[in-house]
Amino acid sequence: MAGHSKWAQIKRKKAANDLKRGKVISKYLRAIAAAARAGGSADPAANAQLRNLIEAAKMDDVPNDNIERLLKRLQGGDEEGSNYEEVVYEGYAPGGVAVLVYALTDNRNRTASEVRHVFSKHGGSLGASGAVAWQFDRRGYIWLEPNTEAAQEAAIELGALDLQESEEGLEIYTDPQEVYTIASGLKERGFKPEDVQITMIPQNTMTLAQEDAEKVLRMIEALEDLDDTQNVYSNLNLENVTVEA
C-alpha cells in the first residue's frame, strides 16, 4: 500500500492551476448530482454515497457555495445528473501496468471511444470487464502531516485497518464506509487530515525504469483529462520515479 501518498500529492499539485481546478470542481459536482439520483435522495443525511462525495469535495477545496447551490436545485426537482451512469474501463498501460478508469457518462459510446483512443495512442490496451479489477482493493485513505505517535494511536483507536509511515507523513487505510467517520474523529482530536478519499489500492505494484514510467504517467494524465473521467488508478510503483507536477 505504501506510496499512495505520492500519487495524491502529484494530483493535488497538478490540480492547483485554474484550468485543472475548474475541471476538478466540475467533476465533483457531476458526481454529486449522479449520486443524489442513484441514492434516491438529494439529502446527504439520507444518502451515504452523496454524503461521502460531499465530504470528499470539501476536502478537495470545492467551494461550499457551489455544493449548496447544486443541492438546492436537486432538492427542488432539478433533473441534473439524471442521465449519468458510472462506467469502469480496465486495461494495461505500457510495461503491463494495470489501469482502472472510473467515468460518469451520459453517452457510453462516446466515452468508450475516447478512453480507447487514449489507451491506443499511448501504447496501452483496453481490456474486458474484470481484466484487472481483481488486482485492486477498495479502501478508505487518509493522509496526515506530520507523522506522530499520537496520530498513529488515534487512528488505530478509531478503527484504521493499516498504517504506513514515512518522513513526510502518515498514510491511514480504512474500511471505505468508515473513512469519513475516522477523518472526523481525527479532526476532533486536533489532527488535520490533508487528504481523505475512497480509492482503489493495488495488491501489488510494478516497478519500471524512469523512461517507461513516464510513458505510463503520460497515459494516465491523458485519461484524467477526459471530461467524463472521475478517477484513474494503476499499480505503477512511483517510489523511485521522478515526477514533474
Features:
245 residues, alpha+beta, Arc Repressor Mutant, subunit A, Alpha-Beta Plaits, 3 domains, 4-stranded antiparallel β-sheet, 22% strand, YebC-like
Outline the structure in words.
GO terms for molecular function: DNA binding. It is found in: Cytoplasm. The chain has helices spanning 4-14, 18-38, 48-59, 64-75, 108-121, 149-158, 179-188, 210-224; strands spanning 85-93, 97-105, 125-127, 136-144, 162-165, 170-174, 193-202, 229-234. The protein folds into three domains: 4-75, Arc Repressor Mutant, subunit A; 85-134 and 204-234, 2-Layer Sandwich (Alpha-Beta Plaits); 136-202, Alpha-Beta Plaits (2-Layer Sandwich). Helix 2 packs antiparallel against helix 3 (48-59) and helix 2 (18-38) runs parallel beside helix 4 (64-75). 43% of the residues lie in helices and 22% in strands. The chain contains eight helices and eight strands; from the N terminus they run ααααββαββαββαβαβ. The strands form two sheets. Strands 3-1-2-8 form a four-stranded antiparallel β-sheet.
Please give the oligomerization state of what you see.
single chain
Which percent range describes the beta-strand content?
15-25%
CATH second-level architecture of the largest domain = 2-Layer Sandwich
List the domain count as a whole number. Answer: 3
Termini Cα gap: 22 Å
Summing up helix and strand content along with how strands pair, one would put the structural category as alpha+beta
Protein name: Probable transcriptional regulatory protein Mrose_02579
Keywords: Coiled coil, Cytoplasm, DNA-binding, Transcription, Transcription regulation
Domain TACO1/YebC-like second and third: 84-236
Subcellular location: Cytoplasm
